[in-house]
Write a structure and sequence with these properties.
single chain, alpha+beta, Immunoglobulin-like, six-stranded antiparallel sheet, three-stranded antiparallel sheet, 1 helix, 9 strands, 15% helix
Length: 132
């Protein structure tokens, strides 16, 4: 590797980190805290060491969520009231991956799209160490 190539790689990395950091989009060690005492949700977790713009989570559902409770769709609603992410569920499904905005409290809606009802509505908070 030549010195010029190494310099370009280092400069590109620095520019990328500055761009992400200056935009407030890079969060280190993100955490997620969400629903407890729920008939639909068994838990929510993340294993990412860092996130950019959103936290990727694994949402665990109760055995009855998509069968007895009839949940067919999950929606993340951000703090401003906008839909942030959705997941369509199959009968018997007990896990899905969803995105949550970083460093804010969002609402996680479990709905039955067949009859149009909200089965459960829970708050989920993401946090972490913002870079810059």
């Amino acid at each position: 590797m030549t010195a010029a190539h190494t310099r370009r790689v280092v400069l590109t990395g620095i520019v990328l980190l500055l761009a992400l950091g200056a935009s407030g989009c890079l969060t280190l060690q993100p955490t997620v805290a969400g629903p407890s005492d729920s008939a639909v949700f068994d838990g929510i977790s993340t294993s990412e060491p860092w996130s950019s713009g959103h936290v990727t989570t694994t949402v665990k559902l109760s055995e009855a969520a998509t069968t007895d409770k009839g949940v067919t769709k999950l929606t993340v609603v951000d703090a401003s009231g906008e839909s942030y992410d959705t997941a369509t569920l199959d009968s018997g499904q007990t896990t899905t991956t969803m995105f949550f905005p970083t460093n804010q409290t969002s609402t996680l809606l479990a709905t039955n799209t067949v009859n149009g009802t909200v089965v459960e509505k829970r708050s989920v908070t993401t946090s972490g160490n913002k870079l810059i």
